[in-house]
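Pasting as-is:
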Amino acid sequence: MTIVNNALDGILGGLGLNPGDSLVGQWSVWAYNASDSLKSTDTYAITLKRQAKGNVIVLYDSTVAGCRVAKDSVVNNLNSITETYDLFNRKGQTTGTTSISFRGYKKVILLGEGTSVVSNVVKDSIKAYLNSGGNTTATKSKLIILAEDIGYQLDRTGSTYLDTLFFRTVLGCQYIADRPGTSGNRGLIGVTTNPNIADSTVGSFPDVLRKSSSAPVGQLYSLYKFRLFPDSLNGIGRIGTNYNISTMGVDVESLRPAFDSPSGSPVARLMKGAIDFVDGMLTDVTPVNTGVIPQTFSLAQNFPNPFNPTTKINFSIPKQGLVTLKIYDVLGKEVMTLVNETKAVGNYEVEFNGSNLASGAYFYRIESGEFTNIKRMILLK
């Protein structure tokens, strides 16, 4: 018997059973009356196994049909990239009176739907999760929010659920308006994530946001803007010391392709963009057609160098395999991951943006199979 992460799973955890581990016991049938009992002659073995914890936990409101649709869409996308996940029914703002600890998950995805965003109790669990993050890309807490009323509920004066400190200081966002202009479908254009790629939302109230002055400006990124209102943002990201956050003021089930969108699902695009952002992968990897198939691994010196704030790094892969390209500071602390995926044989170019880093020397390190190489670069602002 496999027990999912619910109340019974919590009991097994309270007994000291770790996720994925089993507890073996026995059970029998007993007959009772008012004054006596009788055990059956047969005894059976029973195994209670805790579900192995997934890498991601998806928070959704099962009482809202649109949020169930959003959950299914997100789950389908997680399945398509073979990402393990758990589900948690956060319920509504007033009905979500209980929560669980999200510590141990690599990512938390919060799904909103209309006015249903998050209860104070579940929000407190999210805060604890963010505060538990480490200071490397691999150990940081990572939060993805997709909720068109996230600003309306948490940063609007007069809101019952007002939490300006969290919204502005932690998420790095400030609420401006409940929607851009009048009602109707709104085009979205990617900025840092999915740059210049168009999609749209049919949601009634996609939030208009701007970067908050209460968070370090070097940690904040414009993720998405409205097509007809390019100075109005719908998505803001933060690369913090102990957590990375992607906040989108749009509901998943409202996403639609625009007339000039590339092929594929807009949900898949926004999800991949959000995941890549919180994973520290802020750049696209572009194949370079030199007409020559590389015969050896190589890592070129970045150009320009010194640079401010962008520079390009070229590398060649003679054998298909997993490639990682990471940035480190002079103390050896990982500050960003540029590449972390399987690449085919070829020559590639990555543009690195150091706008959220301080001036100084940095190192970039490539690894693929048994090949590793490290080079030094200078950021001068």
